[in-house]
């Protein structure tokens, strides 16, 4: 292969990644909107007494779009030149092997999860919660679109954990390809949206990968407002004892489902009465 073919420059990262990020984010979130409208899926809803209203979903969408094109866009545009300075391969072949991509993305998940646990826990400190993190907790029963519904400073702070891993790997090893970054960003978006979906299915990852967090774990954080601070894994919450209320609640919930089944009742036993912010649904107010 000629030297020229090995170093033909591709299009810059930002113009490619910006629309792709929108496509991945909303493409992954929309199925959860559809599931929210299906009564047959309510048996898998974690907070079965709550449902996001169309207005809440639309208001959330507008806020997320504004954040994407104001807060996140500069991060996307600056990521490419900074990483290229540190040694990011954007115009070279061959592409990295599947094995190389796997261990690098695995490191990114571990780094991001550790960063997120401590940064997220810090955001629950009084002044930071009041002025920054409180917006994300407007929805006590999260839904997929709400994954990035947050104050601009929170988007910037927690987003640093997502791009921090690639930054460090570039700086320390000079061994990272843009293709790996694309795959990492897609997987991270999928993880964040699924964690906020509000649903726990029998095929959900935590049911066959016990250390995975998922919606089962993160939904409790929104409901209780504290604890379960991690994103992808459960080990930091387990080690620091910040998942004790989650474990007690899930045990009680499992017992309630067992009692309902023993009485021949289908779960959930009652229709939803509140919206995603915990307020009574309009139909219930009118009664």
TrEMBL record:
GO terms under biological process: lipid biosynthetic process
Pfam family, one: FA_hydroxylase
Span of domain Fatty acid hydroxylase: 107-242
One Gene Ontology cellular component annotation held by this UniProt entry: membrane
Keyword Membrane belongs to the record: yes
Single annotated GO MF: oxidoreductase activity
Protein keywords: Membrane, Transmembrane, Transmembrane helix
PANTHER family for the chain: STEROL DESATURASE (PTHR11863)
Descriptive protein name: Fatty acid hydroxylase domain-containing protein
